[in-house]
Amino acid sequence: xxxxxxxxxxxxxxxxxxxxxxxxxxxxxxxxxxxxxxxxxxxxxxxxxxxxxxxxxxxxxxxxxxxxxxxxxxxxxxxxxxxxxxxxxxxxxxxxxxxxxxxxxxxxxxxxxxxxxxxxxxxxxxxxxxxxxxxxxxxxxxxxxxxxxxxxxxxxxxxxxxxxxxxxxxxxxxxxxxxxxxxxxxxxxxxxxxxxxxxx
Length: 200
Hints:
Layout: H1 2-16, E1 22-29, H2 30-33, E2 41-45, E3 53-56, E4 61-68, E5 72-78, E6 88-91, E7 94-99, E8 102-104, H3 107-125, H4 130-147, H5 152-161, H6 167-176, H7 179-182, H8 185-199
Parallel strand pairs: 1-7
Antiparallel strand pairs: 1-4, 2-3, 2-5, 5-6, 7-8
Helix pairs in contact: 3-4, 3-5, 4-5, 4-6, 6-8
């Protein structure tokens, strides 16, 4: 009888496409996240969320809890409207905190932070050698996206490449990623913009 119930539940799970959701927690403060100090509320926006999540800032601190089907890139939007750059975070299982303005504490967020540091190290190593820097940075971007082509780190790197790589290189970089990541809204927009630039 128990075995029959087990098989029925397994079959129901397969038919309904049930799966485990990834529960995440984000704990941060404005200074560590490098958000405007007069921020009162923060929205967490992502294509992987049914709707934006909102957190109220209390004594400079904020917190989010939620769940996603798969890891996905998200961004914070401050209520001040002063930002020109919104910090990115990957929503994935675990507790996410901040270090030097970057999300840390989960595998993919740690990988993104390490990539940022790698780009800084490349800039330092090629100080005064613009051509050498661009070549090394481009190689780093392609290696990182190839390594993470199926996860949101690829999206993070592709969007980061804007203003850092030539339009032709960005289009090739996008083509390196998985179809799902190529179809991420902001990546599609970037690809269309780069195509227009190559045709000018």
